[in-house]
Request: fold
Amino acid sequence: MICPCSGLPPGTDFDRCCRPALDGETWPATAEALMRSRYTAFVRGDENHLFRTWHPKTRPADLGVDEQTQWLGLDIIDTTDGGEDDATGTVHFRARFRDHLGEQELEENSSFVRRAGRWMYLDALNH
Reply:
């Protein structure tokens, strides 16, 4: 089964892509890999992964997982920094989903920072 994030690299199966991060076996090495694992966590309803990857300064009480939302696909538009040697990075993406209002699209430019050597989601600018 191809990973819900479409795979990194494209077409990679879930067991070799996001599953190790969601299971806590590894920590994503780049901001993009973390963003992809967070998308996959939303798809799978994995609040634990979302909690541990969300920076404590900006983490809300409600993580926003809605079991009625069906995630339909992810497209990475652009990344800025966020590599293995960077301290900050951004990932611009579009995620398609279906909820009680029908099919929709979320476009976001997400900010990531390193905390204790690990990438953390900080905040987002919606488009």
Notes: The chain has one domain: 14-126.
